[in-house]
């Protein structure tokens, strides 16, 4: 890694522009089969981030629950995780398992993600690997409990982040993106991929 922040490993610039373009092409095919949607929060207000997934499981939410599901809200199975994305897991995760979910988050305009823990998975011993594409995003990392001091880092297109060990359950979020900072995505915006072992 090029940087470590509270146990989170950051590989800055791991993916070159051709790698990023190939992944974006693969994501387009996933989105064509499993369209992006705005998950509903318990408050009844949709999240500002749009999402879809690839892999055996995808992440879905409605007013009553957040959970992993084997089907998209439309009822179809999620597309498989492309090799271009699985290869990154192989390079940086240090895990013997294969990711069962690749969550795809799209941030447009003022989209953000509040501070939260990722704890819907059964196996916290397995890391989460994140890939940033397109506009820069201001990532904030906190602590194992809500509140306290936080640290921030701008994630750029091609950066890969590994959350393993003690860092797996820290609170984190995305405060904002720098709209127009990247030409990678048609229509602009930021895409974040997170690969997870779910079961
Ligand atoms: C630290 N996504 O999908 S990725 C998420 O950029 C999520 O879209 C953000 O948080 C995004 O759940 C941040 C970096 C990340 C992902 C998972 C983590 C950091 C993490 C899990 C534990 C600790
Ligand atoms: Fe998260």
Automatic annotation (TrEMBL):
GO molecular function: broad specificity oxidative DNA demethylase activity; ferrous iron binding; oxidative RNA demethylase activity
BP term (GO), one: oxidative RNA demethylation
Source organism: Octadecabacter ascidiaceicola
Coiled coil: none
UniProt: Fe cation binding residues: 116, 118, 172
Record flagged with keyword Iron: yes
Keyword Oxidoreductase: yes
Binding site for substrate: 59, 66-68, 120, 146
GO cellular component terms, A-Z: cytoplasm
Entry keyword set: Dioxygenase, Iron, Metal-binding, Oxidoreductase
EC id: 1.14.11.33
Gene: alkB
Cofactor annotation comment: Binds 1 Fe(2+) ion per subunit.
Cofactor(s) in the UniProt record: Fe(2+)
Cross-referenced PROSITE patterns: FE2OG_OXY (PS51471)
Domain Fe2OG dioxygenase span(s) in chain numbering: 98-199
Amino acids binding 2-oxoglutarate: 105-107, 190-196
Superkingdom as given in the UniProt entry: Bacteria
Record protein name field: Alpha-ketoglutarate-dependent dioxygenase AlkB
Top class in the EC scheme: oxidoreductase
